Amino acid sequence: MSQPVKSPRTPPVEPSESPGSRRAAAQRLTMRRKLAAAAMELFATKGYEATTVDEIAAAAGVARRTFFRHFRSKEEAIFPDHDDTLVRAEAVLEAAPPHEHPLDTVCRGIKEVMRMYAASPAVSVERYRLTREVPTLREREIASVARYERLFTRYLLGHFDERAHRDGDDDPLLAEVAASAVVTAHNHVLRRWLRSGGQGDVETQLDHAFEIVRDTFGTGIGAGRPTADRGPAASVSAEGEVLVTVARTDAPLSEVMRTIERALKDK
C-alpha cells in the first residue's frame, strides 16, 4: 500500500456573515421549504403530472417568478434541503481533525444527510412515497445521491498517491469503492427507516452499518493523516502473550480500537 500523500491544506476561510446575510439565508430556506410543502401536497392530491408550477406558487402564496428564483423545475422543488446539506457535509470534511481516519470523516459527513431526513420524519416518509411512484422524482433523487458520492470519493482519493494507478497499487480503487460503500450503507439504512414510517433510532442503525464498512475497508485505507513530526494514532507490540498498546492522547478511540483488533487478528 502506498502511504497517504500529505498535501498542504489551506486553512478554511471563516465566512464573515453579517446578521443580515444569515437572516436572508434563513428566509431563503424557509421559502424553499414552503414551496416544497405546497408541491408535495399538490402531487399527493392531484398527481405529479397534473400539477403545474403556477399551482405550486399559488398554493404557497407567491408569484411564479418567486418559484423560479428558488427552483428550476417542479421536480427540483421536492428536495429543498439537498444543496445546503451538501455544503454542511463538505464543511465536515474540511474541518476534519488531522489524525482522524479518512473513512471516519466520510461517515461523519454523510450523517448530515441522514439528519436532514430525520429532522422531519413525516415529510421524509411522504417524499419517499412520492419518489417511488414518480420516475422523474426518483431520477432527481438518484442525481442528488450521486453528488454526495462524488464528494466523498474525491475526499478519499485526496489522501492517496494518484501515481499508484500506474504503479499497480489498489489504494485509489479502494478509495472509490469505500466511498460508494459508505453511501450505499447510508441509503440502505435510510430506506429501511423510511419504509418503517420513520420510526426508530436511525443514527444508531447508521452507526452499526458504518462499523461494517469500517471493518471491511478501514484496514486498507491509510489510517489518519500523520504529519512529519507525529507518528500514527496508535501502535501495538507483542510481548509474549501480552499486547502492549501505545496511543497518542489525541488519538480517536475508534482508531485505537481498530489497531488493537488488527493486532489480535494477526496473533
What does this protein look like?
The longest helix is centred in the first third of the chain and has 28 residues, at 19-46. The chain has 267 residues and is mainly α. A two-stranded antiparallel ribbon has the order 1-2. The protein is built from eleven helices and two strands; from the N terminus they run ααααααααααββα.
In short:
Helix content is 63%, strand content 4%.
Question: What descriptive keywords fit this protein?
Answer:
single chain; 267 residues; mainly alpha; two-stranded antiparallel sheet; disordered N terminus
Shape summary: elongated
Q: How would you spell out the order of helices and strands?
A: HHHHHHHHHHEEH
The helix tally amounts to: 11
Number of strands: 2
The termini sit apart by 21 Å
Biggest β-sheet strands, sense, barrel: 2 strands, antiparallel
Measured by DSSP, the beta-strand proportion falls in under 5%
Kindly name the structural category. Answer: mainly alpha
Q: Report Rg.
A: 22 Å
State mean pLDDT (0 to 100 scale). 79
Low-confidence stretches: 1-16, 223-230
The percent range for helix content is 55-70%
Largest sheet, order of strands side by side? 1-2
Please give the structural blueprint.
Layout lengths: L18 H28 L6 H8 L3 H7 L11 H13 L7 H17 L2 H13 L1 H23 L6 H4 L3 H25 L6 H16 L16 E6 L2 E6 L5 H14 L1
Antiparallel strand pairs: 1-2
